[in-house]
Design goal:
The protein is 51% helix and 7% strand. A hairpin with a 5-residue loop joins strand 9 (605-611) and strand 10 (617-625). It is built from 42 helices and 15 strands.
Amino acid sequence: MAVRLAFGVIADRDRRAWLIETGEEVGHDGPAGAAVVLGARDSDPARVAIACADLAGLVEAGGTVIAGAGIDLGEGFVSARLAGATGDRRDAVIAALRVLKLGGAWRLGERTATLVALFGVAATKPVGAAAEQAIGEGRWAAVVLASAAADVLGPEQLVRVLALRTPDGVDPMPEGVPSVLAANLRRVLEQYSGPRRLELLLDLWEQVCAGQLAGLARARLAASHDLTVLEPLRARYRQFAEAQAIELVQDHDYRPFTVLHAIQFRPTWRNYWKHCVERLIQDALAATVLLRAAVAVHEHGADVGIARVRGELEAVSALLTRSEINKARRPVGELTTLPARPIGHVREIDTALRQQQLRGAAFERFLRTRLCTALAYATIVQDEVVDLLRYALPRESLPETWDSGSLRAWRAAAGYTARHSPQHWHCEPLVRKRDQPSLADRLDEDASAVDLGCDLLWLADLADAMARALGHAGAVSVPAYRVPMFDTNPPAPQPDPLTPRTESIPLAVAGAAQLLALGAAAPSRCRDWNSLCEGLMRGGAVAQALTSEFEIPEAVLAHDGTMLPGTGLRIQFARTAGRLAEWSDYMGNCIAGPWYQREAVHGRSILLALRDERDVIVVNAQLRRGRGWFVSEIAGRFNRDPDPAVHQALREWAATLKVSEPEPAPADPVDTAPPARVRRSAPNPLREVAPLLRDAASKAMVESEPGLRVLTALAGDRDGDPKSLTALRRSPADRLTRICADALAADPSALPRLWTASGTRPLAAALEALDPALLARYPRLAALRADAPIPSKTLRAMVKDPDIALARTTDLVGLRVRAALGRLARADDPALAHALVRNPLADLLCPLILATTLAPDLRIPLTTISEPRAVTVPGYPVTSLSDPTGPWQTAWPAVLELGIGEFGSDSEAFWTRIATHGLRIPTSWLGPGGWPALWSRAHSH
């Protein structure tokens, strides 16, 4: 029989096919999509072997897809792929042209046929000429995009696409299959006019190129810093600091200096700490201006960049005298010859600018050799500031307030940044007394107030300069005790899985096509690609489509997280449509489409991902149910062909899965009585409960508006739109915990409001409002209260109603926020501790303390507030742990929401902890006056 080839082609009966790996002849059906050599039936085996070797070399260079281009292998042999290959011939032709180049294009056959394979009916002479020029110049991104867009653009427009160029190092089409991109482009652009389609594509091209250029610039900027000097420079800096400390002690009435004098020395703010802090502020300002100069020179060139920070350089250079700077420059033993303090480099640059002796390339080399160590200096200074102000300097040694003369001179020249303005600096000043007004609070009372050294705003400026030197917009505040902390190299924010990403054109177009498949409506008018995406994201159709939960047999689900035998890949199942959206966002495929969801909801298929050791998705696959489970589909990123070994391993593993047999229905008892004539339909909650629950949920959402506004503000939406809670619901536990910590660090007074808002349960309230008889008839309705997969298909269909879905999202966000607060409490998070000390409430303290007591092996400082086995809790008012109407027993429902189930949340576990340790509280929650003062303040609010 004739061999079946890819793309619907049947080989002539007198032609045979040979696998390139083994040289084995293939019959009617062979391995799906395999690369083969086609030749005459009576071909010489030696010639067949030569052709197979030739094609194997091409496949090694361009992948299996290249075989589908029909490459001439000489002596009547051509390449081909067997039936079952994905994509179409344009994928193969482009892959072949990448390897053969323009000079080898003759091996693909006639020029016209090749152009038709690439551009279809739009393959005119101008298009052919433009394509040949683009191929000859190696502009493959333009070629691939034009080939994929040939279905939606005309010849004149394709010529414009083929003329596109990219900056060096930029590739808007780094990966992606042309046929897949073509299908997505048709879906996204088909409703727009020809000119509008071209405008959208060109705008997307510019956006992707601009984004990649910005990424390259950030990478070059980060690479310009020399961190190999970090540890040698740290040793040099600490040696100098120790020498300065010894000088301070020597100047304090002790001559000659001895070890005994050092032991007897008692540092105070006036004789020691003030000088150490002033030196650190000077070094922080010097490192800040060096980093700002490095960024400016990188962005604008040496002359223009250094001119932008000239005033700041002069101000910092003037902070020390020549003798003080020379002391920091003086080499010491075998330590590095770099200046001990960054202000040494500042003075050198300032002097060179004043003398104007260096010009052009010489000046640029002079600058870069001094600016390349700026980040190392800044890292050391930041570490030293934290060590001194947080650990070494006792709070009782601090004055009531303090300032820095160096900071005053700096502010006069540099001013403030928009990212950290004084009006928004809410950090508590570092002074002797706690709970002093922040700079922002002082400015609210007195507009003439200025930032002082104790406000530590200069430390935020240093952190921002470090972050910008690494290519970020600024540093990210991290909750910390006493001294503000910053992440100067924060990870890139994770994009919303539903928002089309502009990292590359295939990824952006695939994201837009996915939204359309989920039911989004494309805007009728859109000026550019951003407005197109905004229109697709508008409305609730997409969010509603992602509420599905999938049925997976327990026997199969047991393999979730295990390794696929024979590979280094981990199996991950999709249990919700939201997980599919995350996969599709990265993979650029349509796995989150309605058909895949529908099949998974009904249990007819299982959707999975295989992840490598870096937790990166390698392939997506669909298993379908037959006599057993089998692999129905499998594809890599952008629907590329998977590794054959992985495909085979997955097939073998799927064959071992058992299909659960449905339980036989119990036999009906024999009833000799005649059947009743009255037929009653089985109770259906969709008909009976859904309308009532929808109305009750809508009413509960209105009544929950104050709490909703707090939760939506946590999601970043100040307008109070409940739909913004969807992002919080989809956030992983660690990310939601970080969001809560950041919110408390920014506004400690928000803790009581956040606790109250997290108790907002509109769906639970709606269920309570239903007729008790109705709830008794449908006991599974209670499952809607829990943060767990819904066990019933009927209930899952019910919660797809927009009003009910919104109410359930609010319930789930409230539950998860409380669990996040529980994690912060057990981790002794400083932001939560600070907020509790400032705003204690009994309704909040009792659940958190009980949860802390229940958690075993907490590695945080704890203070016992009631003796072991004692029931009475001291304080004003005195309370009892066993009083059923008291604050401790009534707090148990809230305790269960703080994520303590894994520690044992029953009464026996609690009383065991009380008998062993007593009631315990994190020590950081206790301010002056200890527990009695905190408990008294909690009842006075």
